[in-house]
């Protein structure tokens, strides 16, 4: 997830392969990031939104994660769309998701949504941190009884985001 060439290795990463924030030996060193970035660049004129699903914290995160002072040019639209998605998501099971810029959570460079926002024409780019909201409630290992409700609410949020994006597209 931190292997993209956007402020690669600058903050919130580790060069230790045993670390959960390992960024790899160099940007795009991994076949997954190479393939995904190639696909996104080849299709950037057809794609209007990119969403990375991650765990955990119940957050809808906007770029940029590498610097709290770096702001996307369409921050207001990203924020409005994210809040619309969170309202829809919340209406399903009353889960409390919050909207933040990624760097407000913790600084991390090299992530896919930042690369998408900075180096493609794709206007909407987010990371959604799924359930649970706290490590003591399961953290990275979501309890089995939370899987379906999480899917239901995320579906509602992504659908609302997509509807909002389509409604506001400039054709």
TrEMBL record:
Any keyword Transcription? no
Q: Which PROSITE patterns match?
A: CARBOXYPEPT_ZN_2, PEPTIDASE_M14
Lineage: superkingdom:
Eukaryota
Q: Give the GO terms filed under biological process for this record.
A: proteolysis
What Pfam family is a match, any one? Peptidase_M14
Q: Which UniProt keywords apply?
A: Carboxypeptidase, Hydrolase, Metal-binding, Metalloprotease, Protease, Signal, Zinc
Q: Which InterPro entries match?
A: CARBOXYPEPT_ZN_2, Peptidase_M14
The answer to whether UniProt assigns keyword Hydrolase to this entry is yes
What region holds the Peptidase M14 domain? 1-165
Q: Which GO terms describe its cellular component?
A: extracellular space
Which cofactors must be present for this protein to function?
Answer: Zn(2+)
- The entry's active site is 129
GO MF annotation, one: metallocarboxypeptidase activity
The similarity comment for this entry is: Belongs to the peptidase M14 family.
Q: Identify this protein by name.
A: Peptidase M14 domain containing protein
